Structures are given as C-alpha cells and as structure tokens.
C-alpha cells in the first residue's frame, strides 16, 4: 500500500498563495507603457534641457510614466474589471486565478503609493502631475465614478493620462518651471487625438462591454460609426498642429506631420472596410505614424523654438 502524500506545512501553504512574478508583470501590462513613456520623451525634447545635465530626473520620469503610473492604472483596471475580463480575456492573471485572492488590489494600492513617492522626488510639478494621473486612473476604473462606463469620459481620461499629462510634466520638470504655452497646446491637441486611439482599443471588448453595461463608443455608436468618429478625432488635431507649426515658423516639421497624416489617411481608409477586424492592424501602422508626428512637433518646439 503506497504511503500517503505528506501534508503541506503552513509555510508551504502560505508560499502557494504568493503570485508568480510573471503574473504580476502581466498584470502591469508592459506593452501599454510605451505611449506615456514616448509622451514623456516628447516633453524631454520640447523642454530644451541638456540631457547630459538632467538625465537622472529624465530617467526617473520615464520610469514614473511607464512602469509605475501606467502599470498602476493597469492593475487598478484589471481588479475592477475582473468580471468583464472573465468574458473578454479569461486568460488574464486575475480571472484565471494566477493572482489569487485580493492580490490584484494590493498590488494596485502598492503601485499607487510608490508612484506618489517617486512623483514627490521630482518636485512640485512632478508630484502634482502624478497625483492627477493617479486620481484619474482610479476614477476611470473604480466605483463610484468608474468613468470607463461611458466611452466619451473614459477615453478622455485615458488620453489625458497617456499623452498630454506626461508630455507637459516632462517639459515642466526638466525646464524647472511652467512649460511654454505652445508646448501645452500641442500636448493637449495630441491628447485629444488619442481619444480616437482609445476608441479603437475598445473594439476588442465589445461582447463583454455589452454584457456588463459598459457604454464604450463601439457599443454606443456601433463599430462602423465609432471607427469613423475615431478617424476624425485622430486626424483633426494633427491638422491643427500642422497649421500651428506653419504659423510658428516651423515649415519642415509641419510638412513631416502633414505627410504622416496623409499616410494615416490611407491606413484609415483600409481600416474602415472592417473596423473590428482591422483595428489591431491600424494600431500597429497608423498609430506608429501618429506618435512619430508627436516627436516631430517636440523637436520643432525644443527649448521655446521656433
């Protein structure tokens, strides 16, 4: 008769409740860190600061924008969306059980506190921006506000956090004061355009959104109308940036962004034939052109130029 299996000791049972590091990393979604890191990089360039003199603050800001604040927002969203993810993405760490118990919530809280601490180290501008970003991240996902229940408000909050806020923060932190109004205006315009990017991201979760009453724009308007709206919302702010750069004496940057916008238009025309099927393709093509235009604008505005 085989010997009975040994009963796990209490320490072994406790260890089994700790999540695997890979599951924690997946919760923080590293693939989503790129947009705020890129926007912060645009702010670094637009600030005109000599990187050799400010690189420690610049590096700390990049970590804050991506792995910390953006990672925190993903953890918050996954915790409060765990019932929706059970339908849309059951393989995610929380609905799959790879993050047991309330670990998703504890990680979201810990990353929030860590983000605020790093923001404090970047001075008043850095802390204020971090506090705004943290507040919007929780308001987006958590009751009672849960801004994501409405596609207009939720996408606006995301666009502000992903594009406008990191750009303005970097320009302020590295220049040591309030950023140039032109930098703020361009950052706001690219943030407005990012509202359309967020709409395209919602196509992947239409079924779960319908089931749980999340009124994303594809749910409210239908896929075709939502896709057309997203294209207009992405294109118009870039056209305004082109006009502003011409008025500010930066014709080469304006021409580069205009060419990028024309190429995006061709990609949009293809995407509109099958919005749900081709939205991921557009995210890999048209959005790449969009963010290159952001950097071209930042270079044109560097240090108060032109």
UniProtKB/TrEMBL annotation:
Identify the stretch annotated as signal peptide in this record: none
Q: Where in the cell is it found?
A: Membrane
InterPro entries the UniProt entry points to: Chl_synth, Prenyltransferase_related, UbiA_prenyltransferase, UbiA_sf
Keywords, ordered alphabetically: Cell membrane, Chlorophyll biosynthesis, Membrane, Transmembrane, Transmembrane helix
The yes or no answer to whether the keyword Membrane is present is: yes
One biological process term in Gene Ontology: chlorophyll biosynthetic process
Q: How does it sit in the membrane?
A: Multi-pass membrane protein
Q: Name one GO molecular function term.
A: transferase activity, transferring alkyl or aryl (other than methyl) groups
Q: What is this protein called?
A: Chlorophyll synthase ChlG
Q: Which organism is it from?
A: Neoroseomonas oryzicola
Its gene? chlG
């Amino acid at each position: 008769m085989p010997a009975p299996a040994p009963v796990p000791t209490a320490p072994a049972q406790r260890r089994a409740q700790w999540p695997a590091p890979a599951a924690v990393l997946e919760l923080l979604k590293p693939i989503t860190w790129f947009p705020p890191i890129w926007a912060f990089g645009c702010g670094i360039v637009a600030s005109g600061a000599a990187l050799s003199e400010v690189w420690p603050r610049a590096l700390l800001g990049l970590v804050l924008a991506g792995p910390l604040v953006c990672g925190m927002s993903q953890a918050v969203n996954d915790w409060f969306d765990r019932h929706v993810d059970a339908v849309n993405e059951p393989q995610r760490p929380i609905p799959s059980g790879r993050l047991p118990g309330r670990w998703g919530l504890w990680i979201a809280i810990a990353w929030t506190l860590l983000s605020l601490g790093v923001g404090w180290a970047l001075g008043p501008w850095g802390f204020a921006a971090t506090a705004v970003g943290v507040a919007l991240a929780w308001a987006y996902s958590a009751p009672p506000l849960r801004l994501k229940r409405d596609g207009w408000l939720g996408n606006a909050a995301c666009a502000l956090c992903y594009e406008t806020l990191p750009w303005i923060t970097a320009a302020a932190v590295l220049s040591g004061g309030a950023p140039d109004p032109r930098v703020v205006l361009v950052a706001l315009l690219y943030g407005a355009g990012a509202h359309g990017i967020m709409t395209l991201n919602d196509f992947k979760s239409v079924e779960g959104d319908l089931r749980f009453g999340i009124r994303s724009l594809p749910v409210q308007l239908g896929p075709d109308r939502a896709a057309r709206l997203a294209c207009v919302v992405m294109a118009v702010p870039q056209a305004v940036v082109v006009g502003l750069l011409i008025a500010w004496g930066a014709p080469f940057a304006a021409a580069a962004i205009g060419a990028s916008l024309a190429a995006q238009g061709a990609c949009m025309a293809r995407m509109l034939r099958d919005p749900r099927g081709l939205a991921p393709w557009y995210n890999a093509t048209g959005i790449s052109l969009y963010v290159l235009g952001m950097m071209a604008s930042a270079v044109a505005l560097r240090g108060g130029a032109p």
